[in-house]
Automatic annotation (TrEMBL):
One of its GO terms (molecular function) is (S)-2-hydroxyglutarate dehydrogenase activity. Its cofactor is FAD. This is Hydroxyglutarate oxidase. Pfam families: DAO. It comes from Streptosporangium carneum. The lineage of its organism: Bacteria, Bacillati, Actinomycetota, Actinomycetes, Streptosporangiales. Keywords: FAD, Flavoprotein, Oxidoreductase.
Length: 396
């Protein structure tokens, strides 16, 4: 069997590796960029989520828990940096205690090990410079080098006889009676099956496949500051707020990275292009399509106040500082330095709701990963196994 995978991010490469291993297929990965992990894989905080947030029984909950174990083992086998620094979810006021309790209950329902509910003194034992009225501690939440994982997965693909074709944008495709024909760059390729893990480019490839569907990708930019100098020592691991249950975003948090840097962020502002990494990145074609989607307009109508706050906060360093000082009050304005951010490919339904769970569709001989935001990197090896299961159904 000859299988094509669109997207050389961590999910696409994990899928390609799993297809080659499990199906004894020849696999070709296609990506428009000149290196692997160019977008969401290479622009995130590197957190390996333990599964504390997700609705029990959801794909996110199941694949995150499976994915953590697989990723930990994979990193150990290939000597890729992986460190269980632990996470605190902190309630800064008594009003947040019910939300914190709900997180602890979800974590235990999902089988997350080592979960502990801490009082104000207990959280200071874990993070001495952090304040709050209570916290949930997840000691096995980790950090890893996701770009290094992606590079190793790409090597696995080539070592099993597959190909990773970079600088090969998918320009057209069509399904035939026997498979899928793809025009990538200047090459015409034929596959028995095509698996689309295109992230921000999902809608573009879905239109080519005639599988527009009832959701669209709306890009949300997450901006970060980094702690400078000795202020990095104020954070040992990961410090998160109690999230707002209305949104799939986790709020501004403090994240120690595998390289020793500590990030403050992200916020969540709608980008003005699918790859809109800054306010100056504007693509009018992308923007027209994003705004033409009824789901975008309904989302804006429901949450415009939050949107305005996020935009204003994007332009004000003080908003990031205030969010960080809520938990680590010793931080000062001079401790925060602007650093690079990322863009999240968030699927939005026609009614304006943001999809929370992973979403994977089968359309003839094409498998489309419609929604794979965080914790997709954590879950990537488990997502790959799940997709191979879907693909095997097609080959019976």
């Amino acid at each position: 069997m000859n299988v094509g995978v669109v997207g050389a991010g961590i999910v696409g490469l994990a899928v390609a590796r799993e297809v080659a291993r499990s199906c004894e297929a020849t696999v070709t990965v296609l990506d428009k960029e000149d290196h692997v992990g160019a977008h969401q894989t290479g622009h995130n905080s590197g957190v390996v989520h333990a599964g504390i947030y997700y609705q029990p029984g959801s794909l996110k909950a199941r694949l995150c828990r499976e994915g953590v174990a697989l990723l930990r083992q994979y990193c150990a086998e290939h000597r890729i940096p992986y460190d269980e620094v632990g996470k605190l979810v902190v309630a800064s006021t008594a009003a947040e205690r019910p939300g914190l309790r709900a997180i602890a209950e979800r974590a235990r329902a999902n089988g997350v090990p080592g979960i502990a509910e801490l009082d104000a003194l207990g959280l200071r034992e874990v993070e001495p410079h952090t304040v709050g009225v209570a916290a949930v501690h997840s000691p096995h939440t980790a950090i890893a080098d996701f770009p290094a994982v992606a590079r190793r997965l790409a090597q696995d693909v080539t070592e099993t006889g597959g190909s990773v074709l970079l600088s090969h944008p998918v320009r057209a495709l069509r399904e035939t009676a026997s498979g899928v024909e793809v025009l990538a760059g200047r090459r015409r390729l034929a596959f028995d099956r095509l698996i689309v893990c295109a992230g921000l480019g999902t809608d573009t490839v879905a239109r080519m496949a005639g599988a527009v569907g009832d959701v669209r990708i709306v890009p949300f930019r997450g901006e970060y500051y980094a702690l400078a100098g000795a202020s990095k020592d104020l954070v040992r691991g990961l410090i998160y707020p109690v999230p707002d249950p209305r949104y799939p975003f986790l709020g501004v948090h403090l994240t120690r990275r595998i390289d020793g840097e500590v990030l403050v962020g992200p916020n969540a502002v709608m980008a003005l292009a699918l790859e809109g990494y800054s306010w100056s990145d504007i693509d009018l074609t992308d923007l027209r399509r994003i705004l033409a989607w009824k789901g975008t307009r309904r989302l804006a109508a429901k949450h415009w106040r939050t949107g305005v706050r996020e935009v204003l906060g994007s332009m004000a360093k003080g908003s990031f500082l205030a969010a960080a000082r809520r938990y680590v009050p010793e931080l000062t304005r001079a401790d925060l330095v602007r650093t690079t951010g990322g863009v999240r490919a968030q699927a939005v339904a026609g009614d304006g709701s943001m999809l929370d769970d992973f979403a994977i569709d089968v359309h003839g001989r094409v498998v489309l990963v419609r929604n794979a935001p965080s914790p997709a990197a954590t879950s990537s090896l488990a997502i790959a196994r799940h997709i191979v299961g879907l693909t095997s159904v097609l080959t019976r």
